[in-house]
Design brief:
The protein has 238 residues and is mainly α. It contains 10 helices and no strands. The protein has helices at residues 2-10, 16-24, 27-49, 51-60, 66-101, 127-134, 140-171, 182-189, 200-206, 230-233.
Length: 238
C-alpha cells in the first residue's frame, strides 16, 4: 500500500491501481484487478459503517410481543439503509473541516519519503488535535485528546462485543464429547456461557490480539516518525 501511495503521488491519474497493473504487469490482470477493486468497495464500506453492531445487538433482544419484534426489524432496516450515508457524511465533513485549519504540508504531520523536509517532534499525529492547537483556545487540544481517547475505548469495547458474539454464534451449535476431535471440542467451548450467561471463553479468545496497538510504543515508532522505506529515508528517490 505504501508503494501504491508513492506511485499515486508520482503519477496521479484516475484509477491508479488498475492502470499501474495494466502498464507494469499485464492488461488482462488489470481488468481483473478493476473488477475485484469494485467488489471490495462494498466490503470496505461495510467495515467502516458498522451495521453488524446493530445486528449483533438485535440478537441480544428478546421481544415478547409481535409489536416489539416488528420494532427490532424496523431498527435493523433503518440502520442498514441510513447508517452508510450518515457515516459517509461524517467522514467527508470531518476531513473537510480539518483541511480548513491544518495544511497538508504541516511539519507536525507524519512526513512521507517523497515529500521532502524533516518531520518535527510533535506530541500527536492527530490532525484534529493539531487543528485544536491552532485554534489557540486554551486546553481545547486536551479536550479533543480526551474525546478521541474515550471514542477509541468505546470503539474497542464495541468491537470486542461484536467479535465475542460472532465467535459465540458460529460455535454454539457444535457438540462437545469424547468422540469428537480435539479441535472440534476446543471450538465448541467458545459456544458455551458461564453462570451469568456470558460467553467468557469467546470473549477471552477475542482478546488474543489485544496487545498489538502497544507495538506503537516500541522505540523508533510514534509521533514525529517519518513514513518511508529505509532507502528513501537515507536520501534516495524513487
Amino acid at each position: 500500500m505504501q508503494c501504491i501511495a508513492e506511485m499515486v503521488c508520482l503519477w496521479p491519474i484516475p484509477g491508479a491501481l488498475i492502470q499501474y497493473v495494466k502498464v507494469f504487469v499485464d492488461a488482462e490482470i488489470g481488468i481483473v484487478v478493476g473488477v475485484v477493486y469494485c467488489a471490495s468497495m462494498s466490503i470496505t464500506a461495510f467495515a467502516f459503517v458498522g451495521v453488524e453492531v446493530v445486528a449483533a445487538c438485535a440478537l441480544e433482544a428478546r421481544p415478547s410481543t409481535r409489536t416489539e419484534h416488528n420494532n427490532v426489524n424496523q431498527t435493523i432496516k433503518f440502520s442498514a439503509v441510513y447508517l452508510p450515508f450518515l457515516a459517509a457524511a461524517v467522514y467527508v465533513l470531518a476531513g473537510f473541516l480539518v483541511t480548513l485549519d491544518v495544511s497538508a504540508k504541516d511539519s507536525s504531520l507524519p512526513q512521507v519519503s517523497w515529500g521532502g523536509g524533516e518531520a518535527i517532534q510533535s506530541s500527536t499525529d492527530s490532525a484534529f488535535v493539531l487543528a485544536a492547537q491552532k485554534s489557540r483556545i486554551p486546553a481545547l487540544d486536551d479536550v479533543v485528546n480526551v474525546f478521541i481517547l474515550v471514542t477509541a475505548i468505546s470503539c474497542a469495547n464495541t468491537n470486542l462485543f461484536v467479535a465475542t458474539r460472532t465467535l459465540f454464534g458460529l460455535t454454539k451449535e457444535l457438540e462437545q464429547g469424547p468422540g469428537q476431535r480435539w479441535y472440534v471440542n476446543m471450538l465448541a467451548s467458545f459456544g458455551t456461557t458461564n453462570n451469568r450467561r456470558v460467553p467468557m471463553k469467546a470473549m477471552l479468545a477475542s482478546c488474543i490480539f489485544l496487545w498489538t496497538p502497544f507495538l506503537l510504543f516500541i522505540k523508533g515508532d510514534g509521533p514525529g516518525i517519518k513514513v518511508c522505506m529505509k532507502k528513501a529515508c537515507q536520501g534516495s528517490r524513487l
